[in-house]
Amino acid sequence: SKGNHRHYMLKEIYEQPVVVAQTLRSYMRRIDDQVSLPIPDFDLSAIRRVTIVACGTSFYAGMVAKYWFEQFARIPVDIDVASEFRYREPVLEPGGLALFISQSGETADTLAALRHARAEGQKIAVVVNVPTSTMAREADLLLPTHAGPEIGVASTKAFTCQLAVLAALAANLARAKGRLSPEEEKKVVRHLAEAPAALNAALAYDEAIESMAGVIAGARDVLYLGRGPDYPLALEGALKLKEISYIHAEGYAAGEMKHGPIALIDDAVPVIVIAPSGPLFEKTVSNMQEVQARGGKVVLISDYDGIAAAGDGCLATITMPKVHPLIAPLVYAVPVQLLAYHVAVAKGTDVDQPRNLAKSVTVE
Ligand code: M6R
């Protein structure tokens, strides 16, 4: 049931601190601050390349994972949307791990890609929320998310739980590759363990987000910008807006703006900038200032320090708790989801059952 919530989507957004904690518990041991996999004897040390395949929101979780796997484990990663994967005739060499990410475990394009990868001799890992699904059954390495049933067509809690599993997998890969000392591993586990409380703190800004939803609800087009592991969040934010509020939205890598989309900027196109404090903050802010210099109206999502440093001149700001960059993609998913939700409610659309969409897409 929806409990006290008006929509399943809102209920599922609010479940995130609990379900992310639940998911993380099966991927790390707090007793010695080590990450672990549900199949402990699965050998990751021989893996030479990871190929990630998924659709929609699950694909954006995969994009975040690419940054993590390459940064921490120094393993090269390819990533495709499932509908493109087979047709580009990917080169799949021995020693490859093919990783499929899906809430439902039934998405037809992703399943067809999985079978193709198996036929090409890849080991098959699956991050999936429905434990009885077809993809779960066909995995060599089954990596469940414990989000519980997700009813809203717009994926929310499944996404943050996928990120939790993928961060733990990145740490496992890094350890297997000899790139994570026990000290570093302890730190990673501690940062991940902070995610549930940080998600809770992010949810506390719900009313503030609701009160500024009108700014976005009146727009015809919206741009979302982010950098590094938060760039996929810009794509996810734009997808959420499109899906449930029917507002045309695009996500861009912040630095790519000046190569074209900046021509769209005027005071009628709100630009939402995702910029947590961290190594990429200054660069993202300078892209934001390029927008402001052209009369663009910016909504800045950052932490207190980021907003103190760069919030002047913004149309609105959304303050997040200050978190380690590793967990920023999980935490910043919350404002992105809530903003889409409140904009959709303001527009009076059918939040849980958007037009033309199905929860599980079982045709190719
Ligand atoms: O069940 P899956 O994760 O395989 O579904 C993939 C996409 O269809 C799904 O994420 C879709 O994009 C959502 N409606 C996004 O909110």
Automatic annotation (TrEMBL):
EC number of the protein: 2.6.1.16
Cellular component annotations (GO), alphabetically ordered: cytosol
Residue ranges constituting the SIS domain according to the UniProt record: 39-179, 212-354
Secretion signal span: none
Enzyme category, top tier: transferase
Active site: K359 (for fru-6p isomerization activity)
GO molecular function, one term: glutamine-fructose-6-phosphate transaminase (isomerizing) activity
Keywords, sorted A to Z: Aminotransferase, Cytoplasm, Glutamine amidotransferase, Repeat, Transferase
Principal cellular location given in the protein's record: cytoplasm
Keyword Cell membrane found: no
Gene Ontology terms describing biological process: amino sugar biosynthetic process; carbohydrate metabolic process; fructose 6-phosphate metabolic process; protein N-linked glycosylation; UDP-N-acetylglucosamine metabolic process
Location(s) in or outside the cell: Cytoplasm
Reaction catalyzed: D-fructose 6-phosphate + L-glutamine = D-glucosamine 6-phosphate + L-glutamate
Domain of life: Bacteria
Function, as annotated: Catalyzes the first step in hexosamine metabolism, converting fructose-6P into glucosamine-6P using glutamine as a nitrogen source.
Quaternary assembly: Homodimer.
UniProt name for this protein: Glutamine--fructose-6-phosphate aminotransferase [isomerizing]
Gene behind this protein: glmS
Whole-protein coverage range: 244 to 607 of 607
